[in-house]
Amino acid sequence: MDKINPFAGVKAGWLSLEGAVSEINADGVSRRLFWENDGKGAFKAEDDLAVFVMQIEKSACTFKIKTGAQWKKSVPEHFIFTPLTFPALKVDHTFFCGERMGRAKAAVYPVPESMEFQARHYSALTSNKETVIMTSPLNQKYDNYFRGQGVGSLLLKWRCDFEFHHNDLPEVTEFDEITISSGDGFEILERYGDESCEVKRDFSQQPECGWNSWDYYRCTVSEEEVLKNAEFIAADPVLKQHVKRIIVDDGWQYCYGEWEPNPLFPRGMKFLADELHKMGFKAGLWLAPSIVEPHCRIAQWDSDMLACSEGGQPCRAFRCMERYGFVLDPTVPKTQKHLEKLFDRYAGMGYEYFKLDFLGMTMDAKRFADRTVPRCQVLRKLMEAVCRGVAGRSEILGCNYHFYLGNSFVNAARVGADIHSHWRGVKANTVSVAGMFWANKKLWINDPDFSLCRSLDTSDDPDIQRLKPSYVACMPNDEYNPGFAFNLCSTRLEEQKVLLSLDIMAGGAINLSDKVTLLNEAGVDLARKVVSAESGFAGRPLDFFERVLPIYWHQRLKKGGRLLVINWEDTPQELPVDWSVAGNVAEVKDFWSGNMEKCQEKIQLAPHSCKLWEY
Prior knowledge:
31% strand, 39 strands, globular
């Protein structure tokens, strides 16, 4: 049969697939696939490794690509199938969605320097104000990635890769469907959220707010300090109405892998849960269920529970803030029983909320015991064991949660990276929070990370800059590096309002994480306003497909809505305001001051500030 181009004449909006090609890479060696018509309305490409098949379904603004393989021999230890890759595309803006919290990346073209992009789930390309989005199912059967390289005004090698490492696959393998759509980018993503929902949940009620120990206390957290903050919240007439859970984060345990309280919690974790219940709070607890530090008993005695290196031996796959650890292998039945027992125990103590962290770092290991489990299903084994242990008694927040696990295991998912009261962190976090707006209150509650109220203007804490967590990275031969002196708070009041305004517009989780006993009047006022704000629908970043950092955000409420305008720049800005999204109202309320204001066509904003209006 003659070789043909299956992509000839296929277009989605401005994107023509005419120049796309298909490739495979087996153990580091790449080769191109050449397609033939199979006589049944589909295409096939025969290689000495497999017969690959492809079918393209077209509609007006969307086409779907379905692919598969019939293997002639064993799948190589490292194999990549690339059904389509575009040599070069001229674009104005790109967005690549990360596989987990804080991994998204956006760019405006021309890019000042070469940029590498990698996404799971979707990537969006905009040219001449028209957006094209490539998606794969959120709940993936096999690992697939969208990749590309920005160079000048071009995006090079935009492609979808299916990857397999140390896997045994069925003789006939069907890959995940790829969809390319053009049109209204917001509608495409919101439709994708609807289609990705495995478990329908009721999000009609206001999400419960919480207080979490991490951002202020980190590993200095103690039973005494947790109770002091809980008592302050319980005594405040506004906070006590809205803050319903107290979450003890990292630092309560002996070590990762041995989940027993350390001496800072002298009366144990059941005592603490009971005390919080007496004050009217739900008790929450942080765990990193798959991380095992080298000195814990599992690492010493049960190496058969650990995931392995390329060479097949237990490996130190975890590293964070200069802490190291092995990771559990969730495909091992012994590991699953361990996780079930652990979560049954703490749910039985009365912990009704679990924050599960470092989940994604499990996948930094290279080999898992059961080779028939695709890599994107390994974490599913972990979450299944956790949920069996919890048995419906507790809510779960997935942190470093791979979104491809879907929404059946978690009530909330972190979408933003770690936040602190630092302006650069607020900016960095916004990219990922904006890119997941479509998931909030469809799949789960989006968690943008903490709603911090302390700043240099809103706290009377003499120790507000005392904790220096980055010194752990300073080695004996290092020259002086100001980055090692990083502290957790450097913002001013107006910058803090930007962070909190974005949290409100996200319409998701609100968790305080300050030493609330030392917030001054202005700080407590911020806390009261943010926890008592009506939780609206997911806010749309209106210029999401035009900028790296969206300036304009709109959110629907049950009645009315909110409009947010942000000056990200270091200089004052005059910004136009399009009030048509609010229905051309004449007057709006400033959220932070409570004052009524007339709608102006342009507003003046100081550097690092915002205006949040309700109507």
